Amino acid sequence: MPEVRIVNVSKKFGNIVALDNINLTIRDQEYFSLLGPSGCGKTTLLRLIAGLIDPDSGEIYIGNRLVNDVPPEDRDIGFVFQTFALFPHMTAWDNVTYGPKVKGFDMAEATTIGHEVLEMVKLHERLDAYPNELSGGMMQRIAVARALAAGAKLLLLDEALGQLDAKVRNEIRYEIRKMAKDLNLTGIHVTHDQSEAMAISDRIAVMKRGRILQVGTPQELYMKPESIFVAHFIGESNFIEGYVSSKNNGNSVVEIREGLKIQASNGAVAEGKQAVLCVRPETLTVEKSVKKASNTVQGTVERITFEGPNMRYEIRLENDALIVAIKSSMSGGWFSIGEKVAVVFPVANTHVFAYPEGSSLKEEISVGSR
Amino acid sequence: MSGSGLRLKALTEKIRETLDKLSSRTAIKFAVYASAVIIFFALILLPPIIGIVIKWDNIQFILDQPPLVDRALGAIQNSFIIALIVAALDLIAGIPMAWLIARGKSRWLSAIDTLADIPFIIPTTALGYSLLLFWSDSGGVSALFGSSLVSTGWLLVMLLHFTFSFPVVVRTLVGALLDYKVEFERASRTLGAAPFTAMRTVTFPVLRPAMISAFILAFARSISETGATIVVAGVFENGPVFIQNMKTEFAVANPALYNGAIVFASFILITISLLIFVAIRLIGPKLRLPLKRVRPVTERKLSYKKAEKSRNTITLIVFFVLILSPSLFVALPAFQAIFTPSFSNAITGSDIWGGYWQSLLLSYGLGATVTIINIIIGLPTAIIIARKKMGKFMSSVFDLLVNVPLVVPSIALGVSLGIFWKASFALPDIMLLIFAHLAITYPYFVRSMSAALERISPDMEEAARTLGAKPLGVFRTIVFPLTKYSMLSGAIMVFTRSVSETGATLAVTSNLQTAPVLLVNWIKQAVPASRLDIALAAGFLILLSFIILLALRLVVGREEKY
Fold first, then answer.
1. How many helices (H) and strands (E) does chain A have?
2. Are residues A11 and A102 in the same domain?
């Protein structure tokens, strides 16, 4: 039932624009992530959906119901807070059964629901403990169980895994997704951790400075980033500055130094304009040969990092740009520092973007809030 | 800068360095803390207790007079009944007020916030007189009804106590509400609780410690207040008034009986207060009301705009009618007095007014002295309590003992201090005054300071240590800047409490008149003072106190930024 629709929503805090005319639809039973650096407005958006703050303008629909004037307690949501916000004066059990109780269910019903959700989060020990006696992982599970027990149809998680250590975090994130799926819930997950978002989301909205830059599946965002920022924030990308010298068949040819031209797959930038080439490190082919080949740039290996499965080469190109190329360490034929190599740019995976107007490339990919 | 200026700077730098170095020596640290503890026992806690013990034998004289025993017990009973009712009423009225101040969005709130402190800065005697004029005198609200609306007696005492303990309750609760993590309340809302339900089931239980201390503070204030109560009591007697009456009746005629009555009444008042105090401390935190039933429909009705609006309106009406107007009423005739000879007499200090300005000077001088001494001896104590320097158990026992002077009726404290210091050391009156005020105000400073210190994470101090700061340097560069505001509010409480203190002052000295004592004398017509004189005297006292506090606030800076 609960599809969430955000229509033309804006929110300011004083002079700071936290959300700038946001439009977004989160589908029913989808596990959706709001991803972005801190200060991008993702938590503000989540709190607006929960009704914890009110938008300055725009409409919010949950399951086709306009909820702008509906208080949080009537939105049928479950909210998991970054700090968990477990009530310190109640035991784990009382925390979990709080929702059914305040909704006026009788004791027996509240107890049944309590056991059901605790079954789901696989936590039945230490229910008489107070929150300050529980470990981070347990508090997390209690917080999720509490949100579920309230009968949520829409599960909202605000950096809910941020306080856990890496091992526990990786375990719990799949569990939460599975629970949401099993219960047919719509889940909205706020995080600044792109690997977390990639791992668990059906779709992701990448946000920056109060705006949504791109919405798509993890694959779409990774393979077809629509902006320099998305290419940078999701996974890793090389950026090379240049000019669009010509266009053919929808492809662009970008000149990165006098006479040094690279073909890229899309042609959104007009001829003669300043542009940025963007290519993922693992799509580059690095070869020993020094002979001229198409879409190839010569370079010198400057640094090598052995990462286990991969070898990571930092290569200084002819035009002085420093790029990263990743090769499987099993493939053999390793290079050494100072070695001359040829880097082949795959046309299909090399994207071209307009050079950011009124700012710099560095500014564009910075994750600082402002 | 001149050469001598530079040399002076180098010298202070040198002294600071030496002190910093000394402060990292274990022996010196120990000495500082040990002397704080010794001073507390020798100066604050033990003298009044020993004072009672010394005259213990005199108790026989009152026990020989059963009617007097009954009178004492009746008075003490009155004290406790009034204190309990007043503390409860203060909480009931104070909670919505604190909520309004901490959570409201109106831009009038900071004005209301400041107004809520008014009864605190008015010396209690003046406050008592103001209430008397307002409720009981023919020129006050009674004029509207043709007869005296509230005559002197228990009801007026109760109104008075309600008024002067209200700011303490509101201050405590506003502080707690501002520190409270709103996240809990939001979580409750997302789980389906209406605002009222969230407040009832989450916010209030979490804030219970603050409510308990607010209750205890109001209770203690009501039990111990003497000066203003005397003004409005009429023939009614509570504990402190009884002690004061014993003084006027028997101090000269039958000193042995007088001492016996005082020891008897003080002992019972102190013991029961402490028992109640400990009981609230012990039972309060365990009192968990299980969340059984919620009535979603009713609680929802109580939550929304209309209910909230009427709640706020009632709160403000109660505040203006019961607290603010009666408190400031005394200022009205003062305005009228500006055009009378009283005013010129006052300005020139002629007639009875010479004594007034002297007493004012004494009051403020005493207040300043006591405040400074308190900061010096109270700071190490606050650190001991906040950082548990004596181990967990001993530190909390210490914490409890520090509160003792709060619950001792000020007049009883004054009397037993007088007995102790006069009998054993023949101290001059001014020293007695300082010691008495020190004992009364000590808990206020230590309380607010230790609470502020507890809010600073020890990590920060440790970080400064690892960066090379010596303990004193850590205090100077980290702790002090972070607790400056709390230190100020502690100091303000000490100062105002000292300036308004009447009971103990009356008890320890007969030849030194502080401003409140003088006012009592004027009101009791021991000196031929007209009503306008009295109003004017109270008005000056309020105005000057207000200016001094405002100046203090401005010097230190208005807000705690961290």
1. 10, 20
2. yes
Set of chain A residues whose Cβ sits within 8 Å of the Cβ of B176: none
B235-293 pLDDT, tens per residue? 889 888 898 888 888 878 888 888 888 889 888 888 888 888 778 777 776 766 666 66
- Report phi then psi at B305, rounded to 5: -25, -50
Q: Cα angle at A158 between A153 and A161, to 5 degrees?
A: 105
* A34, A141: one domain: yes
Asked if residue A242 and residue A199 are part of one domain, the reply reads: no
- Residue A370 confidence (pLDDT) above 60: no
Give a yes or no: residue A370 inside a domain.
no
Please name the residue of chain A whose CA is at the shortest distance from the CA of residue B288.
A89
Phi-psi region of A250 (alpha: psi -120 to 50; beta: other; left: phi over 0): left
Which residue of B184, B194, B293 is in closest CB contact with A87? B184
Euclidean distance between CA atoms B353 and B533, whole angstroms: 9
Residues of chain A positioned with their CB less than 8 A from the CB of B186 = 52, 72, 79, 81, 85
Query: B294: Cβ–Cβ under 8 A, 6 or more apart, which residues?
Result: A101, A102, A103, A104, B193, B197, B201
Helices (H), A209-333: 218-223, 228-233
* A79 lies in the same domain as A160: yes
Q: Do A98 and B190 touch (CB under 8 A)?
A: no
- Domain boundary residue among A195, A228, A261? A228
Whether residue A240 sits in one domain with residue A222: no
Q: Please report residues of B whose CB lies closer than 8 A to that of A98.
A: 188, 191, 193, 201, 291
Instruction: Provide the sign of the torsion angle of the four alpha carbons B21, B27, B29, B34, taken in this order.
Output: negative
CB neighbour list of residue A366: distance below 8 Å, 6 or more residues apart: none
Among A185, A200, A228, where does a domain finish? A228
Please check whether residues A203 and A319 belong to one and the same domain.
no
pLDDT tens digits for range A102-122 = 888 888 888 999 998 888 888
Q: How many CB pairs under 8 A join A and B?
A: 89
Q: Which residues of A touch B (CB under 8 A)?
A: 50-52, 71-75, 77-79, 81, 83, 85-90, 94, 98-99, 101-104, 107, 146-147, 150-151, 156
Q: Which residues contact B273 (CB under 8 A, 6 or more apart)?
A: B220, B223, B407, B408
Q: Kindly state whether residues A137 and A11 are assigned to the same domain.
A: yes
Domain boundaries, chain B: 16-54+339-562
Residue A303 lies in a domain: yes
- In chain B, residues with a C-beta closer than 8 Å to the C-beta of A156 are 190
Closest chain A residue by Cα to residue B200: A102
Contact residues for B320 (Cβ-Cβ < 8 A; gap 6+): none
Which residues of chain B neighbour A52 with C-beta distances below 8 Å?
186, 189-190
Q: For residue A134, is it within any domain? A: yes
Query: What pLDDT score was predicted for residue B562?
Result: 40
Q: Are B157 and B236 in contact (CB under 8 A)?
A: yes
Position B292 scores a pLDDT of: 61
pLDDT in tens, A199-245: 999 999 999 999 999 999 999 999 989 999 999 999 899 999 999 98
| Residue position matching structure tokens 């996974």 | A235
Task: Specify burial of residue B262 (Cβ count, 10 A radius: 0-12, 13-18, 19+).
Answer: buried
Which residue shows structure tokens 């009705």? B301
Q: Are residues A191 and A332 in the same domain?
A: no
Of B187, B189, B294, the CB nearest to A104: B294
Q: What is the pLDDT of residue A199?
A: 92
Which domain covers residue A346, as residue numbers? 236-365
Question: What's the count of helices (H) and strands (E) in chain B, helices before strands?
Answer: 33, 0
How far is residue B523's CA from residue B526's CA, in Å, rounded to a whole number? 8
Give the number of domains in chain A.
2
CATH architecture assigned to B16-54+339-562 = Orthogonal Bundle (1.10)
